[in-house]
What does this fold into?
Amino acid sequence: MIQLVFATGNKGKLAEASDILGPGFQLLTPADLGITEEIPETGDTLAQNSLQKAMYVYERTGRDCFADDTGLEVDCLDGAPGVHSARYASDGHDFDANIVKLLSEIEKKGPGASRKARFRCVVTLIISGSVHQFEGRMDGSIAPAKSGTRGFGYDPVFVPDVYGGKTLAEVSEEDKNNISHRGESLRSMAAWLKGQQ
Ligand code: ITT
It folds into this structure.
């Protein structure tokens, strides 16, 4: 059993990571170790923010840990919201407000604008004090309106290229994890760890 702290405050990410990594891993949260404040993310890139979150937990606990920083890039918005995806509409991680702003910014670009989009994820693992990063991506497009109730964040408006036009909030957790940015990066991390044993 590999025990790791997952440096996140996002319950949706935690649930997905537990499913993706499976029974060989035990995940602790920062809260389990007394870290209850929000972990700062002040970098300009996903890689920097991912490292900053993992390092924050490592410096305070000395434990093996990992963090995930994810951004949604939309072509007609020149890659926005990107690294600012969590606080796109406000400072409060409000998923609904972020989606409202995303749809309205795309509308403003007119009917011919490209709704193509992708999630990118950088996972930073700190193990025995050394740092390793793993990347994942998922391609798709932004739907004109919300649909579905599963998942979290931008899932109700993200239509992956592979499930016949359904949003991520309309497919099963397993189907999302099989193709997602988080699935890809965490499976790479797990394979790397297995190679170290
Ligand atoms: P932590 O930093 O505590 O891990 P966060 O929600 O702040 O959580 P990010 O900065 O990585 O995480 O997330 C950027 C935004 O993208 C945020 O609004 C997420 O809800 C959203 N997001 C991340 N992964 C997603 C996914 O798989 N599906 C839909 N939205 C996602």
About this structure: The chain has a mean pLDDT of 96. The first helix runs from residue 11 to 21. The chain is about 30% helix and 25% strand.
